[in-house]
Amino acid sequence: MHISGIHHVAIIASDYQLSKHFYTELLGLEIVAETYRHQRDSYKLDLRTLDGVQIELFSFPSPPPRVSRPEACGLRHLAFRVPSVADAARELRDKGIEVEAIRIDEFTGSPFTFFSDPDGLPLELYEQ
């Protein structure tokens, strides 16, 4: 097997329109496609980062809550690579998004910080 990268990450939103606004208008991800699946009463929004990684944003009627804090078992967080964590954090704060204090990765020396999507999913900004 030869894994060459990450193709996509799937996220289920409790409020589709709120999450769509967050990921497209506030974070600036590109919309690739939006599909309403009538049989599931569900939207699927395909988004893309500048380097081509996709995020699939789903809506489902009454999805069950999931423990999502960084120390819970399972996917810990989703990290976005940015040229400047300080600039990106400032931009998020200017848009009314709460961002944690910037820290330095003790292993790489790179700055990083965390914020959350509308459902509390931990998201990270990582400078590289």
Automatic annotation (TrEMBL):
Keyword presence, Heme: no
The VOC domain, residue ranges: 5-128
Domain of life: Bacteria
One Gene Ontology molecular-function label: metal ion binding
Keyword check for Metal-binding: yes
InterPro entries: Fosfomycin_Res_Enzymes, Glyas_Bleomycin-R_OHBP_Dase, Glyas_Fos-R_dOase_dom, VOC_core, YwkD-like_dom
Keywords of this entry: Dioxygenase, Metal-binding, Oxidoreductase
Gene3D superfamilies: 2,3-Dihydroxybiphenyl 1,2-Dioxygenase, domain 1
Protein name: Glyoxalase/Bleomycin resistance /Dioxygenase superfamily protein
